Amino acid sequence: MSFRRAISLACGVAGGSAVLVCAALAADKHGYFSDRGRVRETLAAVHAAQPPAWPTANGWDYNWDKRDPSSLVNGKRKESDGDGGSLDAENSKPKATRYICLIRHSQYNLKGDGDKERMLTALGREQAEFTGQRLEALGLKYNVLIHSSMTRATETANIISKYLPGVELVSCDLLREGAPIEPVPPVTHWKPEAVQYHEDGARIEAAFRRYIHRADPKQKEDSFEIIVCHANVIRYFVCRALQFPPEGWLRMGLNNGSITWLTIRPNGRVGLRSLGDSGFMPPDKLTRT
Fold first, then answer.
1. Overall pTM > 0.85
2. pLDDT surpasses 60 at 83
């Protein structure tokens, strides 16, 4: 087999990557291409070393939020109703995009005895001011500001709301901090009891289903919504929304007062515009407690 043909075959097997070219050059240097058996062994080994391809068929569940129009319209009714069935199907399709800003609360007093005493620190209040200023500077027409009912999230939301006059402020117990699901790989410094995963996980999953989904068909315009909550909740939401393994939530880190931005299109596609953005804060104001 000629060297040129071997290179062509190697690149064809694994997409023509630079790694394959280097492997083929190394094999040729050692005289492998003079032996057909060695050629096959080399190509097989290099091909096996390539990462598995992301599944293309059924790789994305368009009905992840149980709001895919095709699953909401009864097929038999469409057949019997004729044009009326088509009209129902069209009316059931979302038209608007939802932009969801997930804000992690600011730094708080870790030594507080219970939630009520775990209030924002002086630095935490500064961080919330920076976050509020950033959201105001974006100049978006925010529809609602939802926050966890825990003290640190409530205080953060109240400070942010000063910069967004007229935006409705809503408290929600489902968004409280907790242990969403046992992380993989496990960590040694944090090991909640199994019952905590069971109780917190169900609540946080319920919060995900309430707030993270495509727009209702009745929504005519794009919406911009703010949710102030906690790192564990946000990281779990991101994994679930992107259809990543939710057990990987603890592999991400979020600064206090940071902004994570999800975009949910009418067809169910989800995009992550930013994860834990805190570049609007001075470096000496950044914390992750």
1. no
2. no
